[in-house]
From TrEMBL:
The keyword rRNA processing belongs to this UniProt entry's keyword annotation: no
Native species: Sphingobium vermicomposti
Start and end residues of each Formyl transferase N-terminal domain: 66-168
Lineage, highest ranks first: Bacteria, Pseudomonadati, Pseudomonadota, Alphaproteobacteria, Sphingomonadales
The protein's name in its UniProt record: Methionyl-tRNA formyltransferase
MF annotations from Gene Ontology: methionyl-tRNA formyltransferase activity
InterPro entries given in the database record: Formyl_trans_C, Formyl_transf_N, Formyl_transf_N_sf, Formyl_transferase-like_C_sf
Domain Formyl transferase C-terminal: from-to ranges: 206-279
Enzyme Commission numbers on file: 2.1.2.9
């Protein structure tokens, strides 16, 4: 039986924990995670400690996996393999030296495409028709290690961050069920990534969700879908306060004369904003004001 050390603090960590504890060839020797008060590091933080303790699995709280005390605590678990599933820090040289060629990571993109950060929002913003979840062997680069397994699937035309996130969770579960047996037999694949196909995705911040109303409504809608839950969301300004828009559709605004960002229609449960190219965005889910903004108000100032 193989012994796993699991590192993470998001839903992918829970998926991996469930797969490992179900598998007859694996035992989880320890779970490394964040204290709940540090959960703000991840927009999709999940507290896995209770689930681990319910299985009599030791919980190791660390704020940096590369520190000496963290490395010593993890080495004491004596893992055959380390699974890094949902951890924002890079595994540094000393970490990789300690667990050489035994560290498995997960990335929500079809590596070598979209290496780096915020792969789910970038997948939607780039209008990728197909993506994949990737299990790979973590090396000294950023998402550059050999591929262990991939699960490909289609991206829907109106995919949202939350729906794409759910697809990635399902893909991860499939890959783990498919790969854990081979890992236990030390027969897992190591396919070199094709550098000619590599792309890199930059980190996104909450300010990247700021809506530019001069863009066509289709572009604004795409930003809303890419930035939505579990991420900070797309937003505009109304009377000095943030107004987040979580769901919207595109409408024709040819018959309206208004400035970009101006509210051109409203109901009790929606409001329509003028966008570029005389298109309209119908917001149906938002946070900020309890009621829709008043007619003709200018958003974004």
């Amino acid at each position: 039986m193989k012994r796993a050390l699991l590192i993470g603090a998001v839903e992918t960590t829970t998926i991996a924990f469930d797969a490992l504890t179900r598998h007859p060839d694996w035992t989880v020797g320890g779970v490394v995670t964040l204290q709940p008060e540090l959960g703000h590091r991840h927009s999709d933080f999940t507290d896995i400690a209770a689930a681990a303790r319910s299985r009599d699995c030791p919980v190791i709280y660390v704020d940096n996996v590369n520190r000496d005390e963290a490395l010593d605590a993890m080495a004491d678990v004596r893992p055959d393999y380390v699974f890094v599933m949902g951890w924002s820090q890079i595994c540094g040289p000393r970490f990789l030296q300690r667990f050489s060629e035994r560290v498995v990571g997960y990335h929500p993109a079809a590596l070598p495409r979209l290496r780096g950060r915020a792969a789910i929002p970038w997948t939607i913003l780039r209008q990728e028709p197909i993506t994949a979840g990737s299990l790979f062997w973590i090396d000294a680069g950023t998402d550059t290690g050999a591929i262990l397994d991939q699960q490909f699937f289609h991206v829907a035309p109106l995919e949202t961050a939350s729906s794409l996130y759910a697809k990635h969770m399902a893909a991860l579960a499939i890959m783990l069920d498919r790969s854990l047996g081979a890992l236990a037999r030390d027969e897992a694949g190591r396919a070199t990534q094709d550098e000619a196909c590599a792309t890199w995705a930059a980190r996104r911040t909450p300010m990247d969700g700021l809506i530019d109303w001069t863009l066509p409504a289709s572009d604004v809608s795409r930003l809303i879908r890419a930035s939505g839950r579990p991420y900070p969301g797309a937003f505009t300004r109304l009377k000095g306060a943030d107004l987040h828009i979580w769901a919207a559709s595109v409408d024709d605004a040819e018959r309206h004369l208004a400035r970009p960002g101006q509210v051109i229609a409203r109901t009790d449960d929606s409001f329509t904003v003028m966008c570029g190219n005389r298109t309209g965005l119908v917001a149906t889910d938002w946070s900020g004001p309890e009621k829709p903004p008043r007619l003709h108000v200018l958003l974004g100032e």
